[in-house]
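forwarding from the other thread:

> can someone predict this with (3S)-3,7-diaminoheptanoic acid?

sure thing
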Amino acid sequence: MKTEHAPTIRRIDYQPLAWTVQSVDLHFTLDAKATVVRNRMHCERRGAGPLVLMAEGLTRVSLTVDGVEVVETALRETDTGLEIDLGERDTALVEVVTQINPSANTELSGLYHSGGGLYTQCEAEGFRRITCFPDRPDVMARFTVTLEADMAAFPVLLSNGNLVDSGDLDGGRHFAIWEDPFPKPSYLFALVAGDLEVLERTEKTRSGREVLLQVWVEDGNLDRADHAMDSLVHSMRWDEKTFGLELDLDRYMIVAVSDFNMGAMENKGLNIFNAKFVLAKPDTATDVDYEHIESVVAHEYFHNWTGNRVTCQDWFQLTLKEGLTVFRDQQFSADMLAAAGGESARAVKRIEDVRVLRTAQFPEDAGPMAHPIRPDQYQAIDNFYTATVYEKGAEVIRMLHTLLGAEGFRNGMDLYFSYHDGQAVTCDDFVEAMSEANGVDLDQFMRWYSQRGTPRLLAEGRYDAAARQYTLTLTQQRPDGDEALHMPVALGLIGPDGADLPLMLAGDTAASPTTRVVELKDTTTTLVFEGVAAEPVPSLLRGFSAPVILELAEDDRRLAFRMAHDSDPFNRWDAAQRFMVRVVLAMTVDAAKGVLPQVPDAFITAFGALLHNEKLDAAYRAVALTLPAEAYLLEQMTPADPVALRRALIVLMRSIGERLGDSWLGLDARLSVAGEYRYHPTDAGRRALRNLGQRYLCAAGVAKGVERALARATGDAHMTDRFGALAALVHSPASAEAATALADFERRFAKDALVMDKWFAIQAGAWRWIDSAEPALARIEALMSHPAFSLSNPNKIYALFGAYFRANPAEFHRADGAGYRFWADRIRDLNKRNPQVASRMARVLENWRRFTPAQQALAREQIEALVGEKDLSPDVREVLEKALGKTD
Ligand code: B3K
Ligand code: ZN
């Protein structure tokens, strides 16, 4: 592990390398403890200078150039690897042999051992932990890979591309040779060796080519692979239809592995997945798991074009592939949902995506890690796989889609591929293709790539009855005083009867439809709507057309009106969220003063009206009646006081459960879904609303609700119902029933690692509904010695520690600072094992300055103690120093 203070890498310093690699032959003699890698690179000169190879933690066995050992004088060891002076040559065959120990690789970057098998993770800089190589995305080479291993230990041998040969060797060994026909950067290299089972399907691509699709899983999991396979086929079809993009290989493989740092990885033709985003069957996976699997499978598949065929010049351009691919997977999921569940299901998807943006990205963009979607500098690139690069990046692409229209966007994509297929390019190249294909100037739009912080949009409306005019003034406010942004604002005006008004701006010859997209380019824009017969209620930023914070003064009456009438389903949901935020914040002020918070009648009435509106789909009602996430609410408080917020939320949830108890109980019976479980948005929506109702009923301690939840949690329900009921009990004062349900769940699933992750997470996130309840921290400390828990498995870390730090703010930010001390101990330990995971966990306290002075002092003490330690990984150090304001 590198322990030095890492240097800052800057975007403006980008230089192409003097040497590139045309083709590479890799030969692996695989072994869990001592794998030997022989790497033959055919290198070609592109400019003046030595051959630069990156290397990390490798034992080098030999190094030759054109068959001759490299003399010491031609070799320079550097902080990141080595440089070889190749004299006057223009081409060179460089061969390097290294030895590595996959079992000792606890960082899970490079080649590592998991559950008896060997797996790789190379993005961003893992390949240099396998062999010496110019490990940068702008070096694209053709790979041939030979894998050789013991047949009994590693019966399956996989790598990128097509299998060209395989066979037996002496001594119970065997080999496989894989050839990837497409040049690729080293971060897309992958290999898998293990005892795996496969689900296979052959499909024809749109042009009639037959392709073999495979989902590889550990022994015993074959009955959980169908949904991933279906999702893959749907993704293929969608990309053919929407973007004319076809699978370019004869074989496409997905492999599920239990130990994995993130969600999944788009290695060319050999995607490696965290098992939780592959494995599902009704008894073990919830509707939400099914939904996530579909979108992650799609995301990795879509990378094959946006990321693999056209990749990034350097890691600063990460959003080029990530923002675009997230946008593509969001559109795919929305289309899939709409095809099965109608347009309302599409709106629900948009709402979920914006919820993620607001809870994860907005706080990031307001804290010490704030960065533009294309950052200008970093110390550890793994710290920049962020919500900003991914989710805000996707919003930026979505704005292009809105500004150019679906057809214009498609034309831009076509042009992008026609110019850049097979290249490593920049975000400018992408936006230029969009601009050229549409004859639209997007220079100002590029500012989205360089400004950090969430812009605010201040809106003010004025109605002039005599002139029948409505004047709307929209003012952009940018955090760093940056220049004005180019953004689309979709808006409508709602008449007093609740119906949208036709929109007519000065200069229009005819009224436009009821939602109109206005392009803002200036700091202030004034719009004058003509012929407005009565004072309208504005509905702004429909569909969340730009990633900004909209500030518009609306009283309770207006919010209730929009909750009832806004024709834009996103804004209708948003009106409910705004009402909830206002109510919760007012209640929190009382809670902080020790006054018992009161829930206003007007709120319960508006909430109940949505609940009772049978014209709205169940899925939509479920999202509309879900309270905003605590992380999002804390963002609206200064100082943030999680304990007072929690007190307010407990009162609010109880009150919703009590005052609407009969309605929830009635719905519970009406929403039951008959027949076998199927993953379908309509069914899932009914289950979601029923589970939400259960949460409110149990929170209020409604006896019938608790009884039903206990029966469901311990009966023979599928996982969506079982877990929904368990969650309702754990998040309630019914502690005896919760304990019974938790014990039942543990008994059933003790051997099922993925299901046990849910069991750990629900307990780590448990609120204290009654004073006598055990604090979450005590429970977590006890669970660390549970036989199903493991400190070397990232999913377990995220389940037990991540859920506590992120999803349980009131318990984590305890007044005695015990939560922070626990956090610091976990970071110390994880830093040694797995810096990427440690750094993700370290980030949970980056916004420590937002909390009360007493909490700030306690948090600062722990952060400073950690920063003072000398063996901190660059990943963790960068995060903590930024948190303290030591680097920018
Ligand atoms: N591209 C990978 C992320 C790799 C993260 C490396 N620390 C997964 C994805 O976005 O599809
Ligand atoms: Zn991605």
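The mean pLDDT is 97. thats all i got for now
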